[in-house]
Amino acid sequence: MATTATQQTSSGGARVRVQQFGRMLSGMVMPNIGAFIAWGLITALFIPTGWLPNESLAALVDPMIKYLLPLLIGYTGGQMVHGKRGGVIGAVVTMGVIVGSSIPMFLGAMLVGPLAGWVLKQFDKAVDGKIKAGFEMLVNNFSLGIIGGLLSVGALKGIGPLVEGLTNILSNGVEFLVNHNLLPLINIIIEPAKVLFLNNAINHGVLGPIALEQSQRVGKSILFMLESNPGPGLGILLAYWLVGKGSAKSSAPGAIIIHFLGGIHEIYFPYILMNPRLILAVIGGGVSGTFTFQMLGAGLVASPSPGSIFAYFAMTPKGGYLPMLAGVIVATVVSFALAALLLKTVKKNDEEEMDIEEAAAKVKDMKSAGTAAQTAATATTVAANVRTKGSVNKIVFACDAGMGSSAMGASVLRKKLQGAGVNITVVNSAVSEIPADADIVVTQKTLTDRAIAVNPNAEHISIDNFLKSPKYDELVERLK
User: Taking the chain, what is the end-to-end CA distance rounded to the nearest angstrom?
Assistant: First the structure.
């Protein structure tokens, strides 16, 4: 028993650490997605093979991808570590890797941005309280300038060429997979990782930088489509709608709209967590969709974020709509067929577990970190922090990136509170950036451990279904 508990603790801790690392990678890209979309639209419209070829306007493409986007990533990475000072030095050092390489330095920016912020943070800690009055501004400005200048020179001569070599190795690996028709096999890893809320890390932290470099060279990249394909998730939700049971069946139509049109893929993750066998369905859909993309030469000019079908249309280059639609449709059909078969073959004694809230809670017990003792300790902490009506001023709905499911959940909860006449602030945030003044924090079950670590003083509420969780109504009744 002790060995099993230790293994669970180790597994859960590793999962949380991987999620945190993935959050750091995606956290440097997600706030700047608007800039990536702007670059993608300019590229799709004005390059020689675009919809509206224009040599003058197309001059924006190269400087944006080589300078603007990496600098934004480097600034954001530094800011995550050490605030605005970290952001400034992150941008300065990122300039070093940009000049020291002949390719877009997204991976380099992800490396040196946080690193530069961390170095400056250590210096600021070392001199804190030791600077004579009146010299604070002088020391702060010159320390940033001197450290940033030295690090940028090191990045120019060392890190830039090193990251360029690494990028070339990764690109050659992708080319090998493409040339040997092995690229679809990547979905065997991607689809399960997505369900464990590593989707943003995979898409923006790993695939995105390589895809952008490829897109600059050939005008499009299939790598943008590996994780973001809405087809597998759509197939799962269609299967629940047509052959599912209970609350999962009734909530599936709304989830389809949010997933396929809104691009928030996290909405279908609980439907898989409640019946883990369905991971086979999304793997089948992902593999078949990527195979279709590859066979027909599909590709996008930039990241379709969020992963909505509308974003797919916006980022598809001229002449690429048929291959794009074919891959999405094939992925949907295969995922639906497998999911429907798996749902129909559920044993009778398992039918009672088809309620999305109860079933996902049981799956969470298998997937979440911690031993029984830790679970009890967490429950005690949460119970001790339960807020009463008069002590609640702010409710925070948190998700991995702070932009998708958290915004949707906050909107649903806000409307319920307003309908009940309860005037309480409801906001959304990334799970790693939960504000200190949050009284109640609402998260998806697999993220609750991370939320408690960030803000242990708040009351934490775990949910499974972003649209129809009974926890919403329970909370509203308590606060009325």
Answer: 44
Give the phi and the psi of residue 62 in degrees, each rounded to 5.
-65, -50
- Give residue 358's identity as a one-letter amino acid code: E
Q: Model confidence over 163-194: pLDDT tens digits? A: 888 877 877 777 788 777 888 988 998 888 88
The answer to whether 275 and 266 are in contact (CB under 8 A) is: no
Q: How much is the pTM?
A: 0.68
User: In the structure encoding, which two tokens stand for residue 436, read together?
Assistant: 């200190």
How far from 477 is each of 245, 388, 413, CA to CA, in Å? 28, 11, 12
Give the C-alpha separation, 96 to 109, whole Å: 10
Helices marked H in 100-226 — which ranges? 106-127, 136-154, 160-179, 187-193, 199-200, 208-218
Q: Which of 399, 401, 422, 438 is catalytic?
A: 399
Q: What is the pLDDT of residues 413-435, one digit of tens each?
A: 888 888 888 888 888 888 878 88
User: Average of pLDDT values for 256-261?
Assistant: 89
Only one residue has tokens 């087809």, namely 231
As a residue count, the chain comes to 480
- Nearest Cα neighbor of 299 from 404, 232, 217 is 217
Query: For residues 209 and 215, what is the distance between their CA atoms, to the nearest angstrom?
Result: 10
Which two structure tokens, joined as six digits, stand for 438?
């949050």
Whether 345 is catalytic is no
Side-chain-side CA neighbours of 262 within 13 Å: the count stands at 17
Cα dihedral across residues 352, 266, 195, 456: positive or negative: negative
DSSP state of 258: I
Closest CA to 447 of 20, 21, 30, 77: 20
Question: How confident is the model at residue 251, as a pLDDT?
Answer: 82
Three-state DSSP class for 261? helix
Contacts with 20 (C-beta within 8 Å, 6 or more apart), sequence order: 432, 450
